[in-house]
Amino acid sequence: MYDLLIHNAAVITLDNEEMIDNGFVLVHEGRFIQVSEGPPPLALKEKAVNIKDAKGKWLLSGFFNTHCHTPMSILRGAADDLPLDQWLKEEVWPREKFLDKDMIHAGTSLALVEMIRSGTVGFLDMYHLHMDIVAEAVVEAGLKGALSRGMIALGFTPQELKDKLNEAAVLAKGWESHESKRLKGFLFPHAPYTCTPDFLEAVADRARSENLPLSIHLAETKKEVARHEKEYGKRPVEHLDDLGFFESPVLAAHGVHVNSFEIKLLTDKNVSVSHNPLSNLKLGSGVAPVGEMMKQGLHLSIGTDSVVSNNNLDMFQEVRTAALLQKGFFHDASLVTAREALQMGTIHGAKAAGFTESGLIKEGYEADFILVDSSKPHLQPVENRVSHLVYSASGQDVTDVFVNGRAVMRNKELITLDEEKIVYEANNQYRRLNGLYRN
Ligand SMILES: CSC[C@H]1O[C@@H](n2cnc3c(O)ncnc32)[C@H](O)[C@@H]1O
Ligand SMILES: [Zn+2]
């Protein structure tokens, strides 16, 4: 017997030019075991425990969001129209001081509902508070999470920093071996401007000895790079390289202010970059040189950052912005094609977040995929599917989401989470937080 058969779907494979106009996928024990054209043979149908007719639907890989902070969804709309340093120091950090377990749970759950509804199957998440609660929520939601307890080093004693790093490493290793097999662990020092060189070196050493990947906010604003040059006499990329940071697999978030030399260095060191275009636009940080990164062969994926700088987690919008922004900013419409943008949001994202057996609709790969309703007027004429997915579709067009072959949303109905309760609780906890913050 087989777990699941989905037939009558237009399958968008993305790893090559192939497109299956009418095809089926057969899933067993969490993986695709067949991806084929045409109606499935009767013998196969008889052996499938669950059968879904996907007539009028597009089947493609779900999104992997490679940079976010899910608990911050509790703060949506709390800090708009400010540059990064003011945003952090005057609005975000003062509120984060009051976040407790219930608020973290409420914010994370809200984020997970939003992610599922808009077709995200996995993500890389970092926060400095209660990441154990985030992990539990991810497991309950049925999604995939590459998780990290974020670390800021300023204002802590050497012993406190040792303990922080130890805690972060123990958590990360625990997630790596979690029974769900849907969690990964990262070490994530917040940024070169909030972590001392000694601490960054200690984190890099620990990553190497524990075989853990790293992530970090890198070269997000011009001001940050200038301040770094003044303080250390070098730019942040070179600084991290000198500290041995790139000796482990690294996913750098943002990479807005990097020059050609730095792009080459990052490429040579196999660093991948999470491009977060909407957050960069909203905070006025700038536009990452994605066209040049692609030309040099740097591995790129796409992230939303938190909803406080976005203000949503819809990867359709993020992928579209990634494709449009380069064209407009660099006056070159050939930069970042629709296919390349969609690949960054799916296949490349899965790899960057460490889910190396996901991201493709292919036999042997983990069955992490979505169905999109292709009958909507804004998706007609129906033929140019990749173009429509990038330039016309939105998260609201997603009808079904599967992770390891298990439905987490079916015909727009959430299976794993209680949306009504989560929305109620998010508002409730936001009011509590506001009460504490204002007093
Ligand atoms: C110490 S982990 C979490 C820490 O990061 C802050 N944060 C969220 N988004 C960004 C960003 O784009 N750049 C820098 N820092 C960011 C978040 O508020 C937490 O304090
Ligand atoms: Zn961030």
UniProtKB/TrEMBL annotation:
Its cofactor is Zn(2+). Substrate binds at E96, R149, H190, E220, D305. Zn(2+) binds at H67, H69, H217, D305. It is an enzyme of class 3 (hydrolase). The keyword Membrane does not apply. The keyword Zinc applies. Its EC number is 3.5.4.28, 3.5.4.31. Binds 1 zinc ion per subunit. InterPro entries: Amidohydro-rel, Deaminase_MtaD/DadD, Metal-dep_hydrolase_composite, Metal_Hydrolase, MTA/SAH_deaminase. SUPFAM superfamilies: Composite domain of metallo-dependent hydrolases (SSF51338), Metallo-dependent hydrolases (SSF51556). It holds the Pfam family Amidohydro_1. Keywords: Hydrolase, Metal-binding, Zinc. Gene3D superfamilies: Metal-dependent hydrolases, Urease, subunit C, domain 1. It comes from the Bacteria. Residues 59-408 form the Amidohydrolase-related domain. It catalyses: S-adenosyl-L-homocysteine + H2O + H(+) = S-inosyl-L-homocysteine + NH4(+); S-methyl-5'-thioadenosine + H2O + H(+) = S-methyl-5'-thioinosine + NH4(+). Belongs to the metallo-dependent hydrolases superfamily. MTA/SAH deaminase family. Catalyzes the deamination of 5-methylthioadenosine and S-adenosyl-L-homocysteine into 5-methylthioinosine and S-inosyl-L-homocysteine, respectively. Is also able to deaminate adenosine. This is 5-methylthioadenosine/S-adenosylhomocysteine deaminase.
